[in-house]
Amino acid sequence: MRITNRLLTERALFNLQRNARRLGTLQEQLSTGLKINRPSDDPVGVARALQLRARLAELQRQVQSGDLAQAWLNQTDSALAELTSLLQRAQQLAIQAANGTLTPADRQVIAAELDKLLEHVATVGNSKLGQSYLFAGFKTDRAPFVFTPGPPPTLTYVGDSGVIRREIAPGETIQINLPGTLFLDVFTTLRALRDDLLAPGSTGPAPGRLDEIAARLDAVQQARTTIGTQDHRVDLTRERLLSQEIVLTSLRSQVEDTDAAEVTTHLAAQETVYRAALEVTARASQRTLFDFLV
Fold it and tell me: Omega before 151 cis (within 30°)?
């Protein structure tokens, strides 16, 4: 095969273009900070990066779901803390009303305060997170408790018994809501105490009423313990998910992101090769009269 000047020139130009492409690729990687700027750069890497991105997106969705669950749990605990304070005040009033030296008028004053507490039970029961009612079961779009001052005061529950569960990790869900019956039980006990004090010839709370109030306090405390346990579980799960997110982000970075120091070194070497190729190509393309004579 005869090696002509034209063939030499074409080969030199081909090598020059190849070196220019390599140089352009390195410059693009350095400027974008990415190894892969188009699928053709690394088809296998693109598939791996897509898998990692999908897993990261799912992890972030689960973290957000856990955050929403935790917000619901925290708001529920705040409502139960308020209900606890309300019951503790009712307990104090019951002890005060048991004093045999009180007059009927004194007991009526205590009963009037209990009326306010009864109304407040409904207010706490209608607590919301954003636009969602906490104790309404699935009917989160409307207030679950309807209070009627009476007399006698009544509390009607218009929610349902739906159990709301929230995903906090793959295949792992927790219940975040509590039944409205907790508030109905508290209301019933406080109204009974009020009726004790307003009954003709009353001498104070009925026998066992203080124990009943204490039982309601225990029930609310148990509910708070349940909520606290769920909240702690969400915390632990969130930490685990965030650790996984860090690992996956690192793996994605290894697949997609440029090592600036490494690329800078390769770029400097490629620039040297490219300049050398330019010189060789320039020499190969120089033609003299002697070239035509031979």
Answer: yes
